[in-house]
């Protein structure tokens, strides 16, 4: 990558929000600061999942750290509109998706070629991610559209799990999560495809709403698949979906509580 890709405005992508209207140093001000949830939320999730990480799957914390990286990369991109920023933004989204899929996808959804081995599944997902990373440099303008297709397998897997889940709270969280995801995608499409219409209404900020809604959708999706994983493979741990700050307030922050703490040693990763 040459130095010109570090320059401001070197990305072929420019979102609907006007550039440098609020600050001479930040290209898209609202799109930049709307990533704040990616920076504030994950540290708290690391705290809530401390028992899960200790007794079930330490790599859960990798997901929360990657979400922070997503927020930082997105903020950098929208602040500079550089090609490097765009690629960092898009590739971190790809890697957090593939990491979550690799670590927490229930084995019954593995293709038969992997014979139920999570190691083989993780290896294949890593190879795919590396190949997709390399291809992302070929046509950067279409990367964002390609990433949108990741919502299809994620939603399908969530649908399959919600069909068999017995916990009504888990089911309700899945439905809310899907609804918010759809709203986020609607905001993304409108900002990208109908910018002139929204600009004429003096509201070119739907991509900022995308950032907020996609975080509110993304982290519960990770929580849900973390629940599916332990419920499927470690049922003796008696996982429970809980909410902070009050467990009876289902619009709080969801997390998975482990009710039977026992250290496991196997080849999950």
UniProtKB/TrEMBL annotation:
One Pfam family here: Ceramidase
Subcellular location: Membrane
Residue numbers binding Zn(2+): 78, 207, 211
Cofactor: Zn(2+)
Bilayer topology term: Multi-pass membrane protein
Binding site for Ca(2+): 14-15, 17, 19, 28
Source taxon at top rank: Eukaryota
Enzyme Commission number(s) from the entry: 3.5.1.-
Assigned keywords, A-Z: Calcium, Hydrolase, Lipid metabolism, Membrane, Metal-binding, Transmembrane, Transmembrane helix, Zinc
GO BP of this protein: ceramide catabolic process
GO cellular component: membrane
Protein family (similarity comment): Belongs to the alkaline ceramidase family.
Function: Hydrolyzes the sphingolipid ceramide into sphingosine and free fatty acid.
Protein's name according to its UniProt entry: Alkaline ceramidase
Organism classification: Eukaryota, Metazoa, Ecdysozoa, Arthropoda, Hexapoda
